[in-house]
DNA sequence: CAGTGGTCTAGACCACTGG
DNA sequence: CAGTGGTCTAGACCACTGC
């Protein structure tokens, strides 16, 4: 029974035998086990995980405890519950919102009327990580990374210029051709083709002026202030997997944020 | 027993007698009742609400049902749970983070080392709402509003220029003097002196250039791109209570955002 | 109609805080 | 040590989905 949460008895929470500091609730242990299965690929994005009752049996805990673990994972957008159907591994593909991490919306607010973005891959090159890219991705300076640059346009108007870096090893085999051939969000391709699911991200936002090359790619005057959005995307266990630097036009769009 | 959630029996959830569409769980009804008490001022910011057992008795439901209602309110930052002590109404005062809605942080990341902001009230005037201010605050054009302008500086460097509008009626009596005399976050003053608690906010962010007056107040060149942050702050039941337009310097600071 | 997640209860016990 | 929130269980029943 290597699937039992700890060496503890059937029903009681642990923390009795070990010298664990502070105490860890049973449902947190269950949550960790589910997280391991997610990370390990036992259940893939879009697929259903076993039912609550089944998991309760496997882990030898009550359904309520499994439920609380799943509740938290669902709140973190790692799982998606569908009443009457089951619980599914969240995915960037087949989601209603095309880009889950993109918070730029048209000033009209009508994101539907605008339609999907036109995407143009500028280039995709293998290169050695600079000091700051390496630091962000938890690599060493000079390690192999992939650099991708692309432009997103809405209604034919170039609106977003993105430059992103991926660690070379997990993304071996990614080319401009594969990026161009892919229909759907880039993060969906990462999931499907490379088994890397972006779970969380942190953004640093600034106002900047473009350099000449950037202004040209976006077809804007060099004096137009742009939003600089630096995003670090993380996979399970907070492992950084992508550094992305975006330049957003904000004369027709704006970055929308909710504060709770 | 006017405190019972519905006219339903002691334990059973309702939705039996009425033609309510769709069905509303008991804990949601409890949540609404707690929300009413919060809005109505039965428990004030910083004060404890009754214990779960006491509320369960009052509402004639089980402790678990009250717990679930409180869980959601705590997740929305309306309540704060403290194990062994009780559950408290969230407040903008006496919080560790000085400004809960301000996401600008120094590039160093060390928000402590920077120390508190120096605040300077530029002016506080009574005026008539323009069309866009009225629309944001759900007033009519020409209704009385208060306009406040101020500058925040860190280490003596002016960093934020804010212009904000408040509905005249709830904030009657607010003056520049009272703002200057107040120590602590502005939202704490709103709570304490005017009984208005900001619960949630939406921000629209852009990159802009300052006009001459703005550049002067911030002591920056007119060509320096700045972050424009338009915030609509809402109180209970999503009633808009403040429109705030901020200009942030982002050469030494950045706007930090977490994407889940 | 079977199976899933969603709600609700009742009771036991645990961890934490304050006096 | 009394009181609070936090965890866990067991069981009943409800709402929703798909076949």
Would you give an account of this structure?
Two copies of one chain form a homodimer. In chain A, helix 1 (26-40) packs across helix 3 (63-75) and helix 2 (52-59) packs across helix 3 (63-75). By secondary structure, the first copy, chain A, is an alpha+beta fold. The two termini of chain A are 42 Å apart. In chain A, the strands form three sheets. Chain A has a six-stranded antiparallel β-sheet with strand order 5-6-7-10-9-8. A three-stranded antiparallel β-sheet of chain A has the order 1-3-2. Chain A has helices at residues 26-40, 52-59, 63-75, 111-114, 131-136, 176-181, 186-194, 212-218, and strands spanning 48-49, 79-82, 86-89, 104-106, 118-128, 144-154, 157-167, 200-208, 226-235, 239-248, 253-259. Chain A folds into two domains: 26-89, Arc Repressor Mutant, subunit A (Orthogonal Bundle), CATH 1.10.10.10; 95-255, Chorismate lyase-like (Chorismate lyase). In chain A, 26% of the residues lie in helices and 32% in strands. The A-B interface holds A 75-77, 100-101, 103, 200-209, 223, 225-228, 231, 248, 250-251, 254-260 and B 75-77, 100-101, 103, 200-209, 223, 225-228, 231, 248, 250-251, 254-260. Strand 11 of chain A pairs antiparallel with strand 8 of chain B.
